[in-house]
Write a structure and sequence with these properties.
Layout lengths: L2 H14 L12 H10 L5 H14 L3 H5 L3 H7 L6 H19 L7 H4 L7 H12 L8 H9 L9 H11 L5 H14 L18 H19 L1
EC number: 4.2.99.18
GO molecular function: 4 iron, 4 sulfur cluster binding; class I DNA-(apurinic or apyrimidinic site) endonuclease activity; DNA binding; DNA N-glycosylase activity; metal ion binding
Catalytic activity: 2'-deoxyribonucleotide-(2'-deoxyribose 5'-phosphate)-2'-deoxyribonucleotide-DNA = a 3'-end 2'-deoxyribonucleotide-(2,3-dehydro-2,3-deoxyribose 5'-phosphate)-DNA + a 5'-end 5'-phospho-2'-deoxyribonucleoside-DNA + H(+)
Length: 224
């Protein structure tokens, strides 16, 4: 894919979602880390409902480790995989206190060593909390990138991230990450993408296939 096509894609998505941003409610790096950890296989909407009370009760790593694990589990019970996530949060907070004085480290390499924090979570934290350009590849970013040909169909999440980093200007990484999420969440959905009204239909492999299939069905319906 040439530079002009990439620019065209980025500009179109930018026009659709100029104000794309992180939708996880948080007021500092620590809360963001907890929120992203909770968001695995869970919607941001559900996470925000849970953290509304959670962040009032727990203000610091010390607060999380001072209660029984069972109590924390109940506090996040509405979140999928809540038992595992409660364990991760507990261990993460212990490590923050032991190694980093209770503060979330700013270095990506240090973040990914924390329990429950993978590459995606680390990218979200460094970009949103510390202003370091990064592209976090979640299900929306992966789906949109592959449909638009920014990445290959069989690419791993890491391969998708690397290809986006090569094609997107570094100073646009974080904003592009948010815009791709919004585009995938509200427009190019997994089940019912808005292909009929999509400004990127001419460069979208998935969209062209879906529209072709739709036309064939309509022809069969009319001729049948």
């Amino acid at each position: 894919m040439n530079v002009a096509t990439v620019r065209y894609i980025l500009d179109c998505i930018g026009e659709l979602f100029p104000d794309a941003h992180c939708e996880l409610n948080h007021s500092n790096a620590f809360e963001l880390t907890i929120a992203v950890l909770l968001s695995a296989q869970c919607t941001d909407e559900t996470v925000n409902k849970v953290t509304k009370d959670l962040f009032q009760k727990y203000r610091s790593p010390q607060d999380y480790v001072s209660v029984p694990l069972e109590e924390l589990e109940q506090d996040i019970r509405r979140i999928g995989l809540y038992r595992n996530k409660a364990k991760h949060i507990h261990h993460l907070c212990l490590l923050l206190m032991e190694r980093y004085g209770g503060e979330v480290p700013k270095e990506h390499d240090q973040l990914i060593q924390l329990p429950g924090v993978g590459r995606k979570t680390a990218n979200v934290v460094v970009s949103n909390a510390f202003g370091v350009p990064a592209i976090a590849v979640d299900t929306h970013v992966e789906r949109v990138s592959k449909r638009l040909g920014l990445a290959g169909w069989k690419d791993s999440v890491l391969e998708v991230e690397k290809k986006l980093m090569k094609k997107v200007p570094r100073d646009e990484w974080t904003l592009t990450h948010h815009r791709l999420i919004f585009f995938g969440r509200y427009h190019c959905k997994a089940q019912n993408p808005k292909c009929q009204v999509c400004p990127l239909l001419d460069v979208c492999r998935e969209g062209k296939k879906r529209m072709k299939t739709s036309l064939i069905r309509q022809d069969k319906k009319h001729t049948g």
